[in-house]
Sequence to fold (137 residues):
Amino acid sequence: MAKRNVTVRMKADHEYEAVNAQGNVVQIDMYDPQDKKAQSPMDMLLSALGSCASVDAVLMMKKKRKTVTDFIVEVEGNRNEGVPAYYTDIHLKFILISPDAKEEEFAKVVALSVEKYCSVASSLKSTITFSSEVRTA
Fold:
């Protein structure tokens, strides 16, 4: 089993920074839309899902020797009205710009990408455990 680690640290009341083992940093904030400087955790979940599914879809199209001029995934999540405001459903719209790809083959690639290969999509079904610890300064 391969493990991955990310450390999230508070920078201010509504600002956080996530760092992976390689030192790559992602800024996160929980400000209202007009004051946002970074994505929220829920935005990042949509971004992670869209980017994960994109990588496999593009690689599969290129493996089929199709030209990928541009590739876009529009990800939309509908959230529960109460607390927690989790996503009740998520829709991914895949857009491939290609002079030689066919609609049917792209639809099959997208289905494989989301349903079989995307680790983020599969992770949304995983069991989450937690622990806690208090340290004195």
